[in-house]
Amino acid sequence: MGGKNSEEVAAVAVRLIEKAADAASLQPVIVPQPYPRLSHGHCIVEVRSAGVNPSDAKAALGLMPHAVWPRIPGRDYAGVIVGGPSHLVGMEVWGSGGDLGIARDGSHARYLVIDAAAVSIKPAVLSMREAGAVGVPFVTAYEGLRRAGLPAAGEVVLVMGGNGKVGQAAIQLAAERGARVFAVNRRGEAYAGHACAPVELIDADRGDIAGQVRERTAGRGADIVFNTVGSPYFAAANQAMAIGARQILISTLDRAVPFDIFQFYRGRHTYVGIDSLALDSTACARILDELAPGFAAGTLKPFATPPDAVYPRERAVDAYRAVLGGARQRLVLEG
Q1: The sheet that has 180-185: what strands, in order across it?
Q2: pTM to 2 decimals?
Q3: For the chain, which terminal residue's Cβ has fewer other Cβ atoms within 10 angstroms, N or C?
Q4: Helices then strands (H, E): number in the chain?
Q5: Going by C-beta distance under 8 Å and a sequence separation of 6 or more, which residues neighbour residue 70?
Q6: Burial of 250 by CB count in 10 Å (0-12 exposed, 13-18 middle, 19+ buried)?
Q7: End-to-end distance of the chain based on CA atoms, in angstroms?
Q8: Are 277 and 301 in contact (CB under 8 A)?
Q9: Which residues make beta-bridge pairs with 233?
Q10: Closest CA to 144 of 275, 259, 290
Q11: H helices within the chain, ranges in order?
Q12: What is the rounded CA–CA span in Å between residue 155 and residue 242?
């Protein structure tokens, strides 16, 4: 992005005044942001980079029932603590939170106030831009795998929607732990993300996803299925589950799906539902603390954020519309 330093650039924030009917109607306003008032037990973060999540944009359309109006959106961030306890001032931090930008002002601004308990130190190997884009996808992937039981070496992990950002994060985390990882994509797509071990591809367009998995695992199937898409893959995911397997669900298109109770209990299956919006900034900080050693060691890698994926805060509406339009890059706001 280049240009002026933080002292020379006027502090601004993106503000949502009321919900929009659709992407074309989105009209966030750019407002001056005064330096926040600091209260006991809190920190002020000068935000250097902030990811733009689908949930940020969807909340602008009024699709999050607990969202407050007006507010500053934004769940993810990386920046520097400029106010708060003296031992924290100057620290480079990263963060996320299901409360941020939804139930309270978030990170699409120059300044963000967080509880001191929500501080997580950014790995030094990550740039601000990289760290600001980690948040929600990695938090969601880690929490899903944690609650399902982190994969052991040699377990089979099947990721439905492998090229989505949560899918890529789940693949990285499973590969880091020595699992055998399968990624389900469409149109014969290669895996687009990082992994510290081989990732085997399943082409959904060839049909019979479960058959392809069982053929390659001597009939066993997957010990963990991370279903990032929900209903479109639900039946195939169930068919692919090994005895005692776990399926993680984070999203869906259809709320109601056929469910074979016999298959469920005879297979001794476990289903884990993850709502990252329920994880506040303190809970997310502890997850990022768990992830930090992997990034420091290079077994985990941040998402690519090329120049065309970086927007100034003044163009936040373009970033929101791009995300709602299905942008495949991880977008960030800076400025």
Answers
A1: 199-203, 180-185, 156-160, 222-227, 241-249, 270-273
A2: 0.95
A3: N
A4: 9, 14
A5: 15, 16, 17, 18
A6: buried
A7: 8
A8: no
A9: none
A10: 275
A11: 54-60, 128-132, 135-148, 165-176, 209-216, 231-240, 261-266, 281-297, 316-324
A12: 10
Residues 37-88 pLDDT 10s: 999 999 999 999 999 999 999 999 988 888 999 999 999 999 999 999 999 9
Q: Which two tokens stand for residue 55?
A: 């949930």
Q: What is the CA radius of gyration of the chain?
A: 20
Half-sphere exposure of residue 327: CA atoms within 13 angstroms, side-chain side: 20
Question: Rounded distance, CA 143 to CA 94, Å?
Answer: 17
User: If you count them, how many residues does the chain have?
Assistant: 335
Whether the per-residue pLDDT at 9 is higher than 80: the answer is no
Return the amino acid letter for 270: T
Would you state the pLDDT for residue 304?
A: 95
Contacts of 99 (CB under 8 A, 6+ apart): 280, 281
